[in-house]
Design brief:
- This protein is α+β, with helices and mostly antiparallel strands.
- It has two domains: 2-148, no CATH class; 152-344, no CATH class.
- The chain has helices at residues 2-69, 74-87, 232-243; strands at 95-96, 107-113, 140-148, 152-155, 160-161, 177-182, 211-214, 218-220, 249-259, 266-281, 289-290, 311-318, 320-324, 338-344.
- Strand 9 (249-259) and strand 10 form a beta hairpin.
- Helix 1 (2-69) packs antiparallel against helix 2 (74-87).
- The longest helix is centred in the first third of the chain and has 68 residues, at 2-69.
- Residues 1-8 and 117-122 have low confidence and may be disordered.
Amino acid sequence: MRRLKLARRVAAKNENERGVAGVLVALMMLVLIGAGALAVDVGQIYAERAQLQNGADAAALAVARKCHKTGCDQATADAMAKELANANANDGGSKVLTPVDLTQPKRVTVSTSTAQGKDGPGFLSKMFASALNAPAASVGAYAIAVYGPPSSGGGFPLTFSNKCWDLAGGKETGDLQKVSWKPGTTCTNPSGTVVSGGWGWLKDPDNDCYAVTSTGNTAGSDPGNDKPDQCKTVLQGWIATLNAGGKVDVPFPVFDTTTGTGNNAIYHIIGYATFEIWGWKFGNNDVYEYHNKATDPSMNTALSCSGGNDRCIIGKFVKFEKIASGGGGGVGGADLGTAEIRLVTK
């Protein structure tokens, strides 16, 4: 009898535990479903915001380029922004908060958003959170683009005097010319060099054939007749491009004044001009001289730079427009025919 009563008590206890377990499982299912719904909806929100950001970026860059090249009015800017914002949305629809902000000079701000509150394209529908009576989600993004002459840059460590710049009167290209440092015929002082003991090279502290400069500031001189070997790879790339029939357009920093001599010389940078390079002579033999003799195609005695100690670069200044990546940098240098359209963070 005792065994029978004990068995009944154990059975009753197990039955009660099964009931509790069922309640716990039901509660956990609700939690898991809620977490899953949250994950899906948050993922949808992030995906929507990425599309809106892509649309804002594309619209800001396109409007900025239009404003720079031909000018733009409010109606044109709004129409362009709407078209590009929609084109970058998977559902083909998004809301541009108009008017596009053109109030600041050389600056365009585009804001985008979901078309909340109605069905159809541009509406961020909730897949699961509505079952939990959550409020409607509102997602937006914005982008700022600036345009105009760049105020900073980095590149091949060579600088030109502003006396070299010949891109005037709105011409698309300048005249084919030789920018010579030795002997001094263009862009130099009477001694035959840009600064005594040097000739237009910039300091290259990382030895990577790359110098960073900014307008209104000074850049140090790297005196010497020959450029060190760190530029060999860059020059090989230029030669390969030119031999294949391509163009080598290089923006160079431009200075207006110099002070000091040798290692202590500095250049005052005022802006950037783009030079379409035909040839050069930065040293003797190998990649340091290319297409620099009077007998080379399209060359003549006036353009050649074939003397043993001659140092020059041959080509022409051209108008150049660059779409830059986001972050850093701005506009504000002297207008020397080179423009930059850039996304900025603020």
